[in-house]
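Dear H.,

Thanks for agreeing to be a second pair of eyes. The structure we're designing against is below in token form, covering all 322 positions.
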């Protein structure tokens, strides 16, 4: 599996490199000219935006955990969230941090919290990707639907959006969940079938209009701030592109980055960003540097999670477990 991910990482990275060096008048000095003193301020804004998005994202995770019956202090939960970010960024994969968060929740409340932590963390990740897709659809409908060269990129967002809607319906609907478990129980051992039934029951805890309103507002703030991270990274390297382009393209890049098909999202993410932003007139080098700079911003902030993990202080305990 690791070798397959390594291949999926290296092959797109090679094409990214080739596209850069094959550009007319390419010179290694172009890379150094991207960075200047004027870029420090927008880079700082990018750090602030990502830090703020982590606070809202952690609050969303807290709300989902509480619906599963796990109640933890927000300050302590924020530390666990940053530890998860650290593992996501520094482990050879992009789901290691989610596994670490589920493990930490289990250590706080015992064996019964494994399902609660897994359900809340999985749903949290899915809903973030779902909501960022809404941004792409909104920008496409507002600014790009009449542009023949850009209109085709609305369709991937539409299909992803419909796929998420079907998935949420299956996870949160008791009838669909019961039907799926009945079908799968015929082909799976009884113990696994019982776990699937229990898992679908946990997802039905999210059937709350108030909860969906809360996490929608939080996801709006979180995903918008994270797109602004790329926008400010673009300004830092001298790319003066309207924010609407970022809201249109970055969701597709985020979806590809979230797929566990490469090492840390590298390779496919840069190749897709390079291909998309070229249609907006951004040079290959700049489009790749924007993605790498945004990733560097994430690395800097996740170092706080490294300190929390290494210090390993006394942790709070879960107040309630359903």
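And this is the sequence the design step returned. I haven't edited it by hand at all.
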């Amino acid at each position: 599996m690791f070798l397959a991910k390594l291949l999926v990482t290296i092959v797109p990275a090679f094409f990214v490199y080739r596209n850069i060096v094959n550009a007319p008048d390419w010179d290694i000095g172009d890379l150094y000219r991207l960075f200047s003193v004027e870029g420090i301020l927008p880079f700082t804004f990018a750090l602030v935006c990502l830090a703020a998005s982590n606070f809202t994202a952690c609050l969303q995770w807290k709300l989902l955990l509480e619906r599963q019956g796990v109640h933890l202090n927000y300050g302590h939960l924020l530390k666990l969230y940053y530890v998860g970010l650290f593992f996501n960024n520094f482990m050879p994969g992009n789901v290691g941090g989610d596994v670490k968060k589920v493990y930490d929740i289990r250590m706080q409340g015992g064996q019964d919290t494994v399902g609660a932590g897994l359900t809340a963390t999985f749903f949290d990740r899915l809903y973030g990707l779902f909501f960022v897709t809404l941004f792409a659809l909104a920008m496409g409908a507002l600014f790009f639907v009449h542009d023949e060269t850009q209109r085709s990129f609305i369709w991937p967002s539409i299909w992803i959006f419909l796929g998420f809607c079907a998935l949420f319906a299956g996870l949160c609907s008791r009838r669909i969940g019961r039907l799926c478990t009945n079908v799968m129980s015929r082909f799976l051992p009884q113990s696994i079938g019982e776990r699937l039934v229990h898992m679908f029951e946990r997802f039905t805890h999210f059937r709350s209009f108030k909860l969906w309103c809360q996490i929608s507002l939080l996801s709006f703030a979180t995903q918008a701030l994270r797109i602004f991270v790329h926008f400010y990274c673009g300004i830092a390297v001298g790319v003066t592109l309207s924010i609407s382009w970022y809201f249109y393209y970055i969701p597709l890049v985020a979806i590809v980055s979230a797929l566990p098909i490469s090492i840390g999202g590298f390779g496919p993410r840069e190749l897709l960003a390079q291909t998309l932003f070229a249609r907006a007139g951004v040079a290959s080098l700049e489009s790749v540097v924007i993605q790498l700079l945004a990733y560097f911003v994430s690395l800097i902030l996740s170092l706080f999670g490294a300190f929390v993990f290494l210090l390993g202080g006394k942790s709070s305990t879960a107040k309630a477990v359903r």
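Two observations from my side: The radius of gyration is 21 Å. Confidence is low (pLDDT under 50) at residues 313-322.

Warmly,
E.
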